Task: structure prediction
Amino acid sequence: MERLIVSGGKPLEGTVRVGGSKNAALPLIFATILTENACTIENLPAIRDVEISLEILAAMGASIRYLDRTTVEIGTRALKPILPPPHLVAALRASTYLMGAMLGRFGRAYVQDFGGCNFSPRPIDMHLYAAEALGAWRQGDTLFASQGLTGAILAFDKVSVGATVNALLMASAAKGTTVIENAACEPHVENLIVFLRSMGAQILRIGSSLVVEGRPLHGGRCSVVGDMIEGGTYLLAGLATGGCVTVTGCEGEHLSAFLSLLSGGGARVLIRDGRIALSGALSSPILIKTAPYPAFPTDLQPQTAAVLAAHMGGIVTEGVFPHRFGYLSALETMGLSFVKNGSTAYIFPSRLIPATVTATDLRGGAALLLAALSAKGESVIEGASYILRGYEDIVEKFSTLGADIKLIKENEKGS
Ligand code: EPZ
Result:
């Protein structure tokens, strides 16, 4: 198992450029299946989930050509509607997008054991509801739409990023008009809309609904939006260590709920000329309630909870994935004092100490890393592969901020 060795307790200072958003890049990659023309995606992050997604497409016959370190050209003319490799599909949640993309292109798709961080159940009932509403039917683990997909009204009873992505992929290739009610509006969903429009799709956002006019789709081009979650994580690292980190490459407005909550708690926020800086200390407890964008993002909940512990504590209510608190037991090993009641955790001011802990999911792993950077002494984070799924060049980026951090690969002798 890969592990990170961190010698914490030093203030982190400096500037980090974040990469393209993981949760934007993955829908774009699978959306290229919708057309047999070549597509180009820029600002791709160098993360494991992108590698695995490209590997899935290549295994199905697509051509993948990197034009430079972050730009890839994907050609799916030779792509076949074969069963995507199960071991790769099981490695990430975004493989659910194969259903929408393959139904849209081939009228056939597979319901497989899709992956995803296991901090909570990850159902796909909304994805299947959308596919069936657009004319697909299920036989065993195969979805068929042999007459193609037909536009429909999709009334989602809750906001789901993934179900909105799959609905957009299918609706863009369907005949006629689709209305997606209660659609997600995360920056990564908007990024997909821009890409689909570049492929010829007609998509209109009206309030919380999306109206999609199906079209034959051609090759498109798009740049991945900066990763607001990566950016928020680095900003929190400055706060966790009493330093000041500046991030570039992501939009301040994408983090407005997160930043305004921290500045309300006493931190200093500076947003200017594409740079976001966070410094100072939290002088009062913070109340976090996560919800779909533009509210406080669930993907920054574990990391922020770790930082609250090193300051004045707070109350964290998880409104998207009620069980997303698995990381608290590992933080308890590092001195965190908390009480949990259902989907709410009460975080008390704690003196964090170094320890050996194990990450069990991506953002929970990032929370352990922030705690290790804050605690004076050497910590070891096992299960670092979870963190590498969503954070590119993490050792290089934290080292430029002054962190003492090493990645020990499988079977490598660590220090
Ligand atoms: C995406 O997951 C992200 N993953 C998650 O980021 C993120 O936490 C989540 O959106 C919320 O923003 C990717 O984009 C690859 P949802 P997704 O569908 O699409 C329920 C990270 O760390 N639901 O918006 O799976 C679901 O249980 C990852 O980068 C159903 O009930 O999340 C949850 O309670 C972790 N039925 C709520 O909807 C369904 O069919 C929102 O989930 C689908 C979802």
